[in-house]
Amino acid sequence: MNAKDTGSLALPELPFLLRPYGPDGDWTYEDGVLTGWAGPRQDRFVPPTGEALDPASDAPRLLGAPEGDFQLIARVTVGFAAAFDAGVLYLHAGEREWAKLCFERSPDLPTICTVVTRGRSDDANAFVVDGSSAWLRISRTGAAFAFHASTDGAHWTFVRIFQLGDADAAAAALVGFLAQSPQGEGCVVTFDHIEFRPNWPKGLRDGS
């Protein structure tokens, strides 16, 4: 399946449709693997240091609207070629209210990174990963969101918890997938072992 052909993608793992946003990511899904492509210098980041923001700056996103509490999980594999190439689980609550959980080359080593944008973006590294794949998880309960990452998909490391927008914005937030290549000539990102759970994790810091 290709998002360009249908305008949306229905993944059997997800109870909601996904729609493409931003530049064309050539999103395809086959045999449990979602693939997207970030083009040269494509990113979604609002500098906190006050530099002018190019309003055309964006990265390919594939997003949908889950209802209620949830966990979205995927193993992310990135064809790292340049600094800050990344595969991302992405959360969108408004034009300047969004967040990224990234598996990123930052700048020399594969690293779990997060960005939360409230007008302007913050940026924080969590831990280094040995290899080209990592597991990412976004969770929501009420107006709260949590980010976790894992090297094996079984034991989860807590990365951060936060709110994004007001309660109405959080309830209507879009969630899904993003590919980026801020300084490079582009990269391919794949997402597999995609899973949706209609609940909040039992414990944020106990590895579950």
TrEMBL record:
By what name is this protein known? DUF1349 domain-containing protein
Q: Which Pfam family, giving just one, matches this sequence?
A: DUF1349
